[in-house]
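Task: sequence design from structure.
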């Protein structure tokens, strides 16, 4: 085969492979989500720790997250300084519920919980449901270096924390490696790195490391201490019910 024909054939094959891979973005995102959550209805015990620029610890808070199907989540704040506070997410709507108030307060998914972790970082855990995208290419990424699939994602609903995400997944197993997180103004807000339980053959993401790119030089570590399948009663997803400060057991 002549060199020019070989080049055309190689380019056509690369384009075909790229288009085939791009059409499978929803499958890639579902695979990545399984490393972060596991299934539709989950209870996730979460610890958020803040570290100063010199690596010294700053603050720490613990949360119980009930991540439910159909864009619904309930976050219970467990540390003494916040005990009794709750965040409820129903689709694009977020409420903060205080123990001494009977009126749910509307908040945004960008509302900070601690450090650079926002309510959306904790309450929304499904890329497959919230984003559409394309394959931007393949490249080496992570530590140690491995071949990754680079996805460019755009939000498909208004209530998500980030309007655009550049996401890198391991090519072999599709585990999340890192992400660049952009807000509505298209500014790079945070960079995320994902730590898995078994680097050689990962089954779960155990930590998400967030580095603020706008103001703070601190690092926020979101650790997933325990996960189990759990479907909450329907009443728990009603802001007026939660405003009465019921015991949730």
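Answer:
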């Amino acid at each position: 085969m002549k060199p020019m024909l070989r080049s055309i054939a190689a380019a056509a094959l690369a384009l075909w492979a790229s288009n085939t891979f791009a059409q499978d973005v929803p499958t890639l995102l579902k695979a990545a989500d399984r490393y972060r959550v596991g299934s539709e209805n989950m209870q996730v015990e979460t610890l958020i720790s803040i570290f100063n620029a010199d690596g010294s610890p700053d603050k720490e808070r613990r949360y119980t997250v009930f991540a439910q199907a159909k864009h619904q989540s309930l976050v219970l704040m467990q540390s003494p300084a916040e005990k009794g506070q709750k965040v409820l997410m129903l689709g694009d709507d977020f409420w903060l519920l205080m123990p001494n108030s009977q009126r749910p307060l509307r908040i945004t998914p960008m509302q900070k919980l601690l450090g650079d972790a926002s309510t959306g970082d904790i309450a929304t855990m499904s890329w497959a449901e919230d984003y559409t995208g394309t394959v931007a290419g393949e490249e080496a990424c992570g530590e140690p270096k491995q071949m990754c699939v680079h996805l460019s994602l755009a939000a498909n609903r208004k209530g998500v924390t980030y309007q655009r995400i550049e996401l890198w997944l391991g090519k072999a197993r599709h585990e999340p490696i890192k992400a660049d997180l952009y807000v509505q103004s298209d500014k790079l807000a945070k960079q995320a790195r994902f730590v898995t339980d078994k680097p050689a053959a990962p089954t779960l993401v155990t930590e998400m490391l967030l580095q603020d790119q706008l103001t703070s030089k601190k690092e926020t570590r979101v650790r997933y201490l325990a996960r189990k399948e759990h479907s909450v009663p329907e009443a728990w997803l009603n802001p007026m019910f939660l405003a009465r400060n019921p015991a949730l057991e």
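The chain has one domain: 26-242.
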